[in-house]
Amino acid sequence: MHIVVCAKQVPNPEAAFSMFRIDEEAKRMVPAPGLQLVMSPFDEQAVEAALRIREHHADARTTVLTLGPDSARNAIKHGLAMGADEGVLLCDAAFEDADSYTTAHALVAAIRKLGRCDLVLTGRQAADWDAGVVGAGVGELLGLPVITFAKDVHVEDTTVRIERVLDDGTEIMEAAMPALVTVSNELGAARTPNLRETMRAARKPVTVWKAADLGLAADEVGAAGARRVVERLFVPVKNNRCEFIAGSPEEQAAGLAQRLRAAKLI
Amino acid sequence: MPKREIEGDWVMGWPDRKRPVLVAGKDSQGRVINGRAPITELEGLITPTDAYYVVNQLEVPEPIHPDDWILTIGGEVERPIELSLKDLQKLPGRTVRAVTECAGNDAGFFDYLMKGGGKPSRINQQDMQKRAAQREQNAVPSTEEISNESTTTCAMSAGEFTGVPLAEVLKKAGLKAGAVSVRMEGFDRGQPDLAVQYRSVGRSDFKLVDPGVINYEKGLPVEKALHPDTLLAWSMNGEYLLHVHGAPVRAIVPGWSGNWWVKWLQKIEVLKHMPECYYQKHYFVYGNAPDDPNKEMITAMGVRCIIVDPLDEDSPLERGSHKIRGLAWSGMGAITRVEVSLDEGKSWREAHLEEPRERWLWVRWSYLWEANEPGHYRVMARATDETGRVQPQIPWNYQRKHFDGIVPADVTIV
Amino acid sequence: MTAASTTLVIAELAQGRLSRLTAELLALARRLAAGTGDTVAAAVFANRADGVPEELIARGADHVYWMEHAQLEHYHGESWVSAAAQLCREQVPALVLAGHTAAGADLAPRLAFRLGTAVATGCVAVSLSGGRPVFTRPCFGGNARETLSFTTAPAVATLRAGCCEALARDDTRRGEVTRVVPQLDDETRRVTVVERLTDAVEGVQLEDAQIVIAGGRGLNGPDGFRWLEQLAGVLGGAVGASRVPCDLGWCPRSWQIGLTGRTVQPELYIAVGISGAGHHMAGCGGAKAIVAVNTDRDAAIFKDARFGVVGDYLQIVPAFIDELQKLRPPINADERR
C-alpha cells in the first residue's frame, strides 16, 4: 500500500502574531527573520494518520509530498523523522505564488508521476491561509472519492474507513481505495520525532522535481496559472477597551452582573 | 516513570539530539529580552551561548557598531581617556571562567522553605514568556496576584569570558589615591519598570523610589574593581559577545551576582565615595522590610548547590541504583565539599566532586544512591566552599535576593 | 453592462427547516442583487422538502431548485457535489454561496474544482467590485484578513455565520419552484455512510443562542464544564468550548467554536479560561459583547473583551451564579407561589 501525504511548510503558527508583518503593498505576509518554519500541524496529523495505518499494515509505504521553496525540504525531513519513508519536494521558481488551484495541479502531476497510490492524506487546511481547498482539489483532479475532516482513518483490505467530524457529531464512512482523505485536529497529537527515527530519516531519499519533470508548462503553475487574485491583505483594527472588574471573587461577580444588567446583556 | 525518550532534531542538516533551548521571553518584535537556561538538560560546565540566561533591568538598547564604540574613563584618574575596542584589545588580556547568576534566581524557594506551599519548578516553561508579556503591559500587579505567580529559576549559567582586567584599564588612566569606587555605566537607558521589580520582590504593597529615566549603572568598590579577575570582556564562550549579553563590552565580576556585570558599557568613572546608584541603594539590597533603615547593597553570592537529577518531575523512580547529580558554586571561592542527605538532613554523606574545581566556576558533583527501599525520599544536597562557608549563608530578605537555601528533591521509589 | 446573472445559494436544513445560516446567505445574495437586478436562486437537496421551497422564497429566493433524490436526504459529499455541479452547468450562476459548515466546507472546494473555477472558504463578507464578487476571509489563524476575487466563473464561496442579517420571513414574496431529479451515477456511491453519531444537544443550539458560555484550557479539566452548564441554565444560554478542551476530550467536539469549529454571534459571549488565540476569536469575534474570565491578566482575550475578570473561575463562576439567582429566583420558586 502506498500512502502519499501532501504537507505544507508554514511559519510556526504557534509564534506570536506580532512576529508577522503584513506588506500591504505586496499583499504578502512577511515573517520576522528567524521565525521558525514548520510542517503545518494538520499536515503533521495527516502524517500521523499514515503512520498509524502502517502500524496495522506492515507493507504500507508513506511518501511526504511538499510544494515549496528549498527550505521546505526541512518539512519533509520532519515527516521522515516522524517515520515516513520517502519525500518529494516540488521546487521551482515557476511554482511561486501558487493559488489553491495551481498547487493542487502540481501535486496531482507529482502523484501521477509517483505511480501507484492507494491513499492520499493531507491536513484539513494549512495553518497559514486556512483555506482547506487544496486537499479536496487534489481529490477532484485525480477523480478520487474525497472524504474531509477525518478524526480517524483505518484501512481494511482495499477499503478506507473514516470517522468524519460533523457540526453536531461524527459519521462513519467507507470508500474503496484509492481515495483522498483530509485530516482534522480531532485525530489527536502527532508523534514527536525521536533520535532513532531522526537518524534513520537521514538515509531516506528526498526527490526534487521541477515543473518540467512533471511535464508542466510554466504558464499553468504558480502565479501564472492562478485563478485567484489577492485584492488586499490586512490586519483588522481593534478599537476595544476592556473594563476590568476588581475586588474579591464575590465583588467581581456582583460587579459583572451589575454591568451586564446595565448594558441589557442579561 | 517510563524512561524519557531522546528527542531528535535536525542540526546543521544532520540528525541529532534535540538541543536544549533557552526558555525565552520576547518583545513584540520577537527579540529575546529575557530567558531561562535549560539548566537541567545541559551537560558539562560551560553553558552554550544561545542557552545562556538573560535578565535585563532596563530595555535592551539599540546595538552599537564595534567600530563606533568608545569607552570613557574619567573621574579620579590622572589621565581621563577614551578607548576604542581596538585600544582595549591592545591591553594585556585575560580569560576567566565564571558562573553568572541573577540575584533573584530561585527567590521563590525562600517562600517555599519558609511557608511551604507549591514548590517552584526548574522546568516550568511558561514563566519567562509570561514575564515578557507582562513587561509590555507595565501594569503594577497586586501582592495577591504576584503571590500566585511562579518565580524565576534557572537564571544562572556559566561561561568563559575574555577581555582585559578592569585594573589594567584603571592603571592606564592612573588611579588617584583615595579612590573608593568605580562607577560602571551602560548605554541601556530607561525608567525602571516597577511591575518587574514588584514581581521580582514578590510583593507590591510598598512604595518603590522612582528615579525617572536613568542609565544602568553600578558603583563597584575599588578592591573588587582591582581584582585581576574582574574584566571588561568582549568575548564569551569562544566568540565575540552577543548583543543580548552586552556587546561590545560588558563587565565580568566573578562571584558577585549578575546585576554587577554591567552590560553595554560606555563609561567608567572613579569616585571618592560610593555613588547612590538606584540599582545599588534602592534595589538589589538586603533588608528586613521596605522601610528598614539599614539596607545594605548585595555583593558576593552565598554558597549554592542544586540537584539537576533526579527532579521531582522524574518521580517515581524504580528501585535500584540512581546517580544523584548536581551543580555547586559559591560567590567566595571554589567548592570543597558537597554532601547529600536522604533522611531529611539527619545524616550527610559526601558526594564526589568532579574535576576541575575552579575558583569562580561551578563544579559538577554526583552521588551514587542505592535506592533499595520503596518509599518517599527527600533528597538534599549542601555545599561548602574554600572559605569554610556551608550553605545556607544568606538569610531571608524582603527583596528575596541571593537565595542559597537547600532545596530538596522529592522522589518516590517504587 | 452584462446581462443580469444568478447567485445560487446552497441551502442546508436543520431539523427539516432552513438553517439560520441559509437564511443569512439568502439575505446576503439579495443585498448583492439589489444594485444589479440579479436573480437569487436557491438549491435545496432533499428527498422530501415540505414547506422548504416556500420558506426559501419567503426568505429572499426568486427561484428554488428542489434537487429531489433519495441519495440527497442527508449531506453526502459525492452526491451533493455531483447534483450541484449538474445544476450549475445548466443554470450557469455567476456566484455560488454555501455556509461554512461541515457540509459547505466539504462541498464548495470540490464543486469549484469540478466546475473548473475557484473558491473562497470561511468568508466573513462578500461585496461587488466592478460587478465582480470580492470575498473577505480570515487567514493566519484569524489574525489577518484577505480579500480575494477570481478570474474564473462561477465564483464559489463558503460564508461564516453572521455574514449578514437574515431577512424577516415574508410569505407574500413570490418565486418559482423547479423540481430537478439529478442524475446520480454509480460514481456518487463510491463513498458510503455506515453510521451517523450525533451529539445530543440539550437546550439551545449554539448558533441560535443569545448567550454563549465557552470554556477553554483554563478550566483545567472536564469538571469545569459542569459549572458552565449551570451558568448556561441560569442565563438561558448554550455552552461552547475552545479547541483544546475538545481535543483533550473534556467536552464533545461539536462544542468547538473557532476557525476549525463553529461560528457564533450571540449578544453575550462569556469566555472562561480561554486565552483568546486568533483561531478561537475567528469563531466568536462577531459577538456583541465578550466577557472574559481568566487568571492571566495578559491573556489576549482581554483585548477583545468588554468586561474582564481576572481570577480563578472556580471562585468567580459560582459567585456569579449566586448573584444571578439573587435577582432571578429559580423558576420553580415562582411556580410554587
Structure, explained:
The complex is a heterotrimer of chains A (266), B (414) and C (337). Chain A has 266 residues and is of the alpha/beta class. Chain A has a single domain (2-220), classed as Rossmann fold (3-Layer(aba) Sandwich). Chain A has helices at residues 41-56, 73-82, 100-114, 134-142, 195-201, 249-262, and strands spanning 2-6, 9-11, 20-23, 28-31, 37-39, 61-67, 86-90, 119-123, 146-156, 159-166, 169-176, 179-183, 206-209, 228-234, 243-244. In chain A, the strands form 3 sheets. Chain A has a 9-stranded mixed beta sheet with strand order 11-10-9-12-8-1-6-7-13, sandwiched between helices. Chain A has a two-stranded antiparallel sheet with strand order 2-5. Chain A has a two-stranded antiparallel sheet with strand order 3-4. The longest helix of chain A is centred in the N-terminal third of the chain and has 16 residues, at 41-56. Chain A is globular and about 65 Å long. Chain A starts with a strand and ends with a helix. Chain B contains 8 helices and 24 strands. In chain B, the strands form 7 sheets. Chain B has a 5-stranded mixed beta sheet. In chain B, strands 7, 8, 11, 12 and 13 form a 5-stranded antiparallel beta sheet that branches. The termini of chain B are close together. The model of chain B has no long low-confidence stretch (mean pLDDT 92). Chain C has 2 domains: 6-189, Rossmann fold; 206-336, Rossmann fold (3-Layer(aba) Sandwich). Chain C has helices at 20-34, 52-58, 77-91, 104-114, 224-235, 243-247, 278-284, 301-304, 313-327, 331-336, and strands at 6-10, 13-14, 17-18, 39-45, 63-67, 95-99, 119-123, 125-129, 132-139, 144-150, 155-159, 176-180, 191-198, 211-215, 238-241, 268-272, 289-294, 307-310. In chain C, helix 3 (77-91) packs across helix 4. Chain C is elongated.
| Most strands sheet of chain B | 5 strands, mixed
Q: Provide the helix percentage of chain B.
A: 10-25%
End-to-end separation of chain A in angstroms reads 58 Å
Largest sheet report of chain A? 9 strands, mixed
Q: How would you state the average pLDDT of chain B, rounded?
A: 92
Largest beta sheet: strand ordering of chain A: 11-10-9-12-8-1-6-7-13
Q: State the helicity of chain A in percent bands.
A: 25-40%
Count of domain modules of chain B: 2
